[in-house]
Recover the amino acids of this structure.
């Protein structure tokens, strides 16, 4: 099943993919590549919408605080017209 760890891991991979896609990290030394990736993540305009809210980082690489939500993940039954296999329901 989908847990908060699964959702967090998905977001981490998605954010890294987006940062790698939008930066030239193939050139230079390994240290230079790491620096370019960190700079991409720290850009003011680097914001991605994740399953647990907006994903953005400060200049030190720490995730900026965002609102937290409690969600329930349910598998969509075959009778539902879900676009995805799982439904994320916000719990108030």
């Amino acid at each position: 099943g989908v847990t908060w760890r699964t959702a967090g891991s998905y977001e981490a991979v998605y954010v890294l993919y987006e940062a790698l896609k939008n930066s030239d990290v193939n050139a230079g030394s390994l240290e230079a590549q790491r620096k370019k990736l960190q700079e991409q993540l720290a850009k003011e305009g680097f914001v991605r919408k994740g399953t647990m809210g907006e994903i953005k980082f400060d200049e030190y690489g720490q995730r900026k605080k965002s609102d937290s939500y409690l969600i329930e993940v349910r598998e969509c039954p075959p009778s539902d017209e879900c676009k995805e296999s799982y439904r994320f329901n916000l719990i108030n």
User: Anything to note?
Assistant: The first strand starts at residue 48 and ends at 50.
